[in-house]
Design a protein that fits this description.
alpha/beta, TIM Barrel, eight-stranded parallel beta barrel, 11 helices, 8 strands, about 15% strand, globular
């Protein structure tokens, strides 16, 4: 089912999970097992990342396996180092696999800019190309606090509007820990007449190291409650995970009470915390 059809139904609550291809082949069975643990929540789809730095870890065999597990799949695709020929070949491959959805992203800039292909410079260019050369339903990324490379939030929202105008069907946000920031983001998008579905991205807290890494890579505000608990539990991953479940449940419950009709979980290929959060909600 296409993204625009999934989110057109306002009555059903939608859950989706993001996973990434493990680097080591012996960890693939673990990934399948983790997904089986989450299958009871009837996810609308599984989001499968493209490799960091533009490396293609998005294997055809992995997509086939997920489909055999009866999951809808939304593969990611990054364009910044891709030629139009390569993108066209990839779209043809997805069509052969009966994939209906894609998450269109710019991707990480390559270290050697001089060797970069310039057929696509921004995600909106990829969205436009996919829209004109396939029947895929297209998801894009939104950043409640602005992309880390954007001049400011207003400039980032203008970039988002370009993606929407190019043909995006759904916006999936970067993770955030302060719901008030997300609600203000929705208000700003509404003022820009961005009316397609906006799905909040949720990442369960697993460790202090995880939070430090995420905040170094992206604009993510750490609210005082979370700061205090990092100071209190930061040296113990088990305590941080326990707190993370409580924090995640409270965050998701508040989003649902405020009318959000879907949640997109960044699982980090682990089901335990996501399962603990969702069993108290669904």
């Amino acid at each position: 089912m296409k993204l625009k059809e999934i989110y057109a139904n306002k009555e059903n609550f939608k859950i989706s999970f993001e996973v990434f291809p493990p680097k080591e082949t012996d960890k693939y069975k673990n990934l399948y097992s983790e997904l089986e643990n989450l299958k009871k929540y009837n996810p609308a789809f599984i989001s499968l990342t493209w490799g960091a730095g533009g490396n293609n870890n998005n294997s055809v065999n992995l997509i086939k396996t997920f489909k055999n597990m009866d999951f809808e799949i939304m593969p990611h695709f990054t364009c910044v180092s891709s030629s139009k020929k390569f993108v066209g070949e990839h779209l043809a491959k997805l069509k052969e696999l009966n994939i209906e959805n894609i998450l269109a992203l710019r991707g990480d800039l390559p270290e050697d800019i001089s060797k970069r292909c310039t057929d696509f410079n921004y995600a909106n260019e990829l969205v436009e190309y996919i829209k004109h050369n396939s029947d895929l339903s297209i998801g894009v990324a939104g950043y409640p606090e602005g992309h880390i490379e954007a001049e400011n939030l207003e400039a980032d929202i203008k970039n988002l509007k370009r993606k929407v105008n190019a043909g995006a069907d759904v916006i999936f946000t970067q993770l955030f820990f302060d719901n008030n920031i997300f609600y203000k983001y929705l208000e700003k998008l509404d003022k820009e007449n961005i009316t397609i579905p906006i799905v909040p991205g949720i990442m369960p807290i697993l460790s202090k190291k995880q939070i430090d890494r995420m905040t170094s890579l992206a604009k993510i505000t750490i609210p005082n409650k979370l700061k205090n608990c990092i100071e209190k539990y930061g040296e113990s991953n088990s305590d941080m995970q326990k707190f993370g479940v409580e924090f995640g449940y409270t965050q998701c419950e508040d989003l649902i009470k405020n009318g959000i009709k879907g949640l997109h979980f960044y699982t980090l290929n682990k089901s335990k915390s996501v399962n603990e959060i969702l069993k108290n909600i669904i």
